[in-house]
Amino acid sequence: MRPSPTLALLLASLLACTAAVPLAAQRRLGTNEPCGGPIAADSLCVVTLGTGTPVPGPQASGPATAVVVGTRTFLFDAGAGVMRRVAEAGLPVDGVTAAFITHLHSDHTLGLPDLILTSWVMGRKAPMPLVGPPGLRAMTTSIMAAWAEDIRVRTTGLERGQPRGERVAVRETAGGTVYDMGGVKVTAIRVLHGSWKVALGYRVETPRRTVVIGGDARPSPLLEAAARDADVLVHEAYPAVRLKPENRPGGESWVDYMKSFHTSDAELGAIAARTRVRHLVVHHVVWMGGTPDEVLAGIRRGGYTGKVTIARDLDHF
Ligand SMILES: [Zn+2]
Ligand SMILES: [Zn+2]
Predict the structure, then answer these.
(1) How confident is the model at residue 41 (pLDDT cuts 50, 70, 90)?
(2) How many angstroms does the Cα of residue 284 sit away from the middle of ligand 2?
(3) Predicted confidence (pLDDT) per residue in 282-292, tens digit
(4) Ligand nearest to the CA of 108
(5) Separation of alpha carbons 176 and 167, rounded Å
(6) Catalytic sites, residue numbers
(7) 293 C-alpha to ligand 2 centroid (Å)
(8) Which ligand is nearest to the CA of 283?
(9) How far is the CA of 191 from the centre of ligand 1 (A)?
(10) How far is CA 282 from the centre of its chain?
(11) Residue 113 φ/ψ, nearest 5 degrees
C-alpha cells in the first residue's frame, strides 16, 4: 500500500528532522577559533592546550599541544584534561587528524583514554592514527580492554554508538618520518629523557612554517639538529637557580633526576641561541617555587636574545 500524501509528508519531515543534525555540525563545541582566525593550508599554528606537569594545578592541564594546518589538527601528547582543552580551543571534538605521543610518562598519556573514547562518543567513525614510542600499542590495547564493557554497552544498547568507531591505528616508532601528506611532514626525533628507552620529540614542517616539539628531554645533539632554524620551538624547562635536593625520602636524588631527565632554563637558552629558533615557547615548567621572570632570566643567561613566551593553556602562536 502506498502511503497517503499526508503520511508521506510526515515521513519526509521526520527524516529531515533526524538528518538536520549531521555529525559534522557537532564537531566543534562553542564558537572559539583555535588560532584567532583561519589558518592557510600551507602554514600552521601552534596551540598550547595543556602546559602543565604532573602537579594537578587547575590553571594548567596536562601536556598537550595542537598544531593546526588548514582544517587538519595534529595533537602532540594527551595529558589530563586534553579533550576539555580541545573543546575550549574550538578544535574538533570528534577526532584529530593524527595524534603523536612523545613518551609514556603518565603526565603525557593520562588523557589517552579521553582522546580515544570521547572523540568516538562525539562522532568519530574512522580509526584514529596514533604514533608514539614502543609500548604505546600495549598501552592502547590495555585501555580498550579496560573500557570494553563501556564500548559494548554504547554500541549494542540504546545509545546506538558507531560500531568500531573507537578504533585506533597505532604505529610505534623510534624515530624517522611518521606523517607526510598534503604538504605536512612530521618527523619523530629521538631525545634523551633519563632512563626511558625511547622518548621522542617531533618536527612538523609545512612550506611556510616549521615547529619543533621537544618532548621531555635533557639537551641532546639530535634534538638540536632537528630544531635548527625552526620558526617555533616548544620546549620544557626548569629554573636552574631553584634546583636543590628535596626534603623528602629519596629527595637527595632530585638534582641527578632533573639533570638526567630535563633541561634547565639556561641550557634551553643556549640551545635556542645555537639553533637560531625564531620563537621559543616554554611549557611543562617544573617550577620548584620559581617564577616566569626567573625562567626568562635563565634563558637570557643561556645566550638567547630572541622572542620567548612562557606559555599558558590555550595560547596560540
Ligand atoms: Zn612530563
Ligand atoms: Zn617525562
Answers:
(1) confident
(2) 10
(3) 999 999 999 99
(4) 1
(5) 24
(6) 107
(7) 24
(8) 1
(9) 13
(10) 14
(11) -60, -35
